Automatic annotation (TrEMBL):
<feature type="transmembrane region" description="Helical">
    <location>
        <begin position="41"/>
        <end position="58"/>
    </location>
</feature>
<feature type="transmembrane region" description="Helical">
    <location>
        <begin position="292"/>
        <end position="315"/>
    </location>
</feature>
<keyword id="KW-0716">Sensory transduction</keyword>
<comment type="similarity">
    <text>Belongs to the insect chemoreceptor superfamily. Heteromeric odorant receptor channel (TC 1.A.69) family.</text>
</comment>
<keyword id="KW-0812">Transmembrane</keyword>
<dbReference type="GO" id="GO:0007165">
    <property type="term" value="P:signal transduction"/>
</dbReference>
<dbReference type="InterPro" id="IPR004117">
    <property type="entry name" value="7tm6_olfct_rcpt"/>
</dbReference>
<dbReference type="GO" id="GO:0005886">
    <property type="term" value="C:plasma membrane"/>
</dbReference>
<feature type="transmembrane region" description="Helical">
    <location>
        <begin position="78"/>
        <end position="96"/>
    </location>
</feature>
<keyword id="KW-0675">Receptor</keyword>
<keyword id="KW-1003">Cell membrane</keyword>
<keyword id="KW-0807">Transducer</keyword>
<feature type="transmembrane region" description="Helical">
    <location>
        <begin position="151"/>
        <end position="175"/>
    </location>
</feature>
<protein>
    <recommendedName>
        <fullName>Odorant receptor</fullName>
    </recommendedName>
</protein>
<feature type="transmembrane region" description="Helical">
    <location>
        <begin position="321"/>
        <end position="342"/>
    </location>
</feature>
<dbReference type="Pfam" id="PF02949">
    <property type="entry name" value="7tm_6"/>
</dbReference>
<keyword id="KW-0472">Membrane</keyword>
Amino acid sequence: MYSELEVKALEQRNYHRIREMIRVTYTMGYNIMKPGPWDNLLKFWSLLLILFTLLSYYGHWQLFVHYMQDIPRISESISTIFQSLMSIMKMIYYLMAPRRFYALLRLVCRHELLQKCELFAAVSDLPVAQPLKQRVANTMDQCWISTRRQLMFYLFCCIGILLNYFVNSLVVNIYHALTEPDNNYEVALPLPSLYPNWMDRGMTFPYYHLPLFLESCNLYICGMGAVSFDVLFIVFCTHGVGLMHSLTHMIEYATSPLIPRERRVQYLRHCIYQYQRVEAFALELNNTFRQIIIIQFILSLFCWGLVLFQISIGIATSLTIALRMLMYLAAGGYQIVIYCYNGQRFTTASERIPMAFYECTWYEESREFRQLIRMMIMRTNLSFSLDVSWFTKMSLPTLMSMIRASGQYTVLLQNLMQKK
């Protein structure tokens, strides 16, 4: 479909569209581009980030122990622990198979499955070649535009909540340092935590700087660790959707007057070969994410409940906390929306494939053509899907079930607080 120069230009353009995600992954300690001499150093930095984040859990544990009876105070700390645990598990998963993600990303950015499609070479001498190629190119371009929009929205949401946590604590500490020069105040850290005998000494070294560094690492992993991994899923999933839409367009042309009747069986066979490639890609994508993502869904369920509980409390007590939790919900809550929304698009696109086979005028074609159509309708009747382990599928009904469950969890927390 593409010449060598077109492939290079396409690859460069697609990498440019996800440049923010690539830069974030470097800061998280892994390289999704070509292997380089700094890969081992990046892995070491990733392990250090994980270690510093785990050390910061000491402060969250102390807060939990000291204020176990105060549910509103510890709920935000627990939700941030869940969020960072999700990011740590994703980082570890990536470090175990970095080249797998590199190979998938390269395949996607170069449109290798479309390059391998023999159909375009087979119809290069026919009038259908140019409109088909243009339609497929437009379809893939729209998918990359969708990827770009989701990436930028998610990135800005995460940056917004990270800045809110960090800048708010920094401004509060600077204000206390200027108004109380004797350091007789308790410092505020980026994330709610407690370091006994350290936090009441003001901004003196190292009693303030060490907890600040640990909590900042935790905060950064919460946001950017999610962005670096979840956006990869967006890229792969929307590319799969584009491949299925492109295959549907190819099938629609199978009985077009632009293709001579004697060459339509050969054309249909090339569509079937392309379907096999798309099927293999869908299976690989599902196997890559199906197990690791169960952790995301379980912990996000509790996070949503805790955040909604904080919002309900904050509306009555502190509008600042309520607004912060709304920002948190826009970033952390969007994680599950990414998987369910794109998973639904993936399934819906695959359901169009058997309809495309059926809707072409196969009944006017040869016996061999009709036999291939019947075979493919039966084969494609089982649509592709993206699974959450063995429990459920990434879909909009799953998203609605999680919203209902998190709402019930919020009500439970409210009842517990009222009883106290």
